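INFO batch 0412 | record 1 of 1 | parsing
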Amino acid sequence: MATQPDRMGLELYRLWRGSWRRSQMAFSGGSMMPLTEHATGLVVSHGSQAPRLGDVVVILQPGGLVTHRIIGSEIGDTGSRRWITQGDASSQADPPIDPTDVMGIVVALSAPHGARFIAGPCWEWVGKWAAAQTRWVTRAAGASPNRVGRWTMALHRRALRGAFGIADALENLRAGLEDWQVDAYRPPLARLIAQCRTGMAPAGDLIDSGLRAAEALGMDLLLLRWVAQRGLHGQAAGAWLERRKATVAFHQLRWRPKLEAVVQALRGIGVEPMALKGFAQSLTLYQEDALREMRDVDLLVPSERETDARAALETLGFVPCFQEPRPESPRHHHGAPQMDPGSGLVIELHREVVPERVLEKPLTDAFRSRGETVRFAGGELRVPCREDRLLHLCLHLRLHRYLGCLRDVLEIALLVDDDTPPWDWGKLERMARECGAGPSLCVGLRLAVLAFGASVPPEFLRHLQLEMLPAPLAETRIRFLARQLTGWSPVRRDGWAKAARRLCKAVAPL
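INFO prediction complete | emitting tokens
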């Protein structure tokens, strides 16, 4: 099965290698029948450079690109591994190829009735079965008379058609079971989210009850943004949005001048602050729109200048919210929050991004070196880059044991869906590996997919789970955590919340 891309297309495929980006291409020929029956195109993922046995790969050969299945491998003269490919309907294998000739992996087939994904765990097993059957049929048909060989190939295609149908059915069953495990028997907020994920416009009473539950978690405005992106923004939701945006905008107008004064005061003493968490998202993802309701503002300052920064806030009238030491405060990455009595603005000065109990490796230097700048308070203010903001959200989930952290998961989904420019998932994986946050990234992205259908490539998530989550029953444990996202708020510290938080910590596959 061949395609004929132009020179620019080949250069893009080489450039995208390892980024887990997707592209679509047309094909011609029947060497991959019956897999490509009724298919009109291929969806190719330019991800890992190390495909697995049974994967359908796009390879570069003289004359163009060829799409065949990997049926085996061999060690070349230089000691490097070379892949052996063959079409499911071909009678002979292709010459061995180097890994650099693999341009991508086929993860879905385009069809008039919708895409057919072939990248799930069931398809992985069927791919290995198809590779083994193709090897056996090639040997049997090659040593048999022509008529017997034709019969053998016909039975081979019929068996593959049945295996592919079984894989399709099992994947649909797995997806349905996944939705039931996450969304069944849930409060109105979860039912509202589940109904919106299906593309159905929710009823007005469900919108009202769901948004009231979301307001308690401080995420109703973000949820309305997510609903509006799916074209389900009805009249009831619109009225709620206008009322709540006016309330939040009035609240922010009260403390915005004080926040600008804080940033200018820190600049005046030579301290360059960096915006974190909700403040950073409001300046970047939401473009200072009154959608991100914040209980406090987090600023990252150099640890050696923390005392000076706190003193500068005190000169502006800020007072500690409580006297240290306090057991509930994670003192090893930020001190007691400071509040301005007049405006109600609460500032948390962080000396580290996350505490050591979440991640032993410090992230401050990496965040600052990769940071970006935005205009704020008459000057440039540092904010983490998009990938670091996503990593921080995933680590923040782990900090609060995933209990009642639905807003963080929604923010991950909103950040992922904001794909301008397109995400380089390979770069994100490398950054997570460098700081040891790979497992937290995997769990956070998977929760965003389960709860909000975030547009994370399934093949990339599958790759992360195989590489970074070797824990037994990891997927089942992540689904359990997804059920706890609408639980107690992270700020609650009573007995029941503490017990539930300990349970989530024990279940998390990290």
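INFO post-check: The longest helix spans residues 146-183.
INFO record closed
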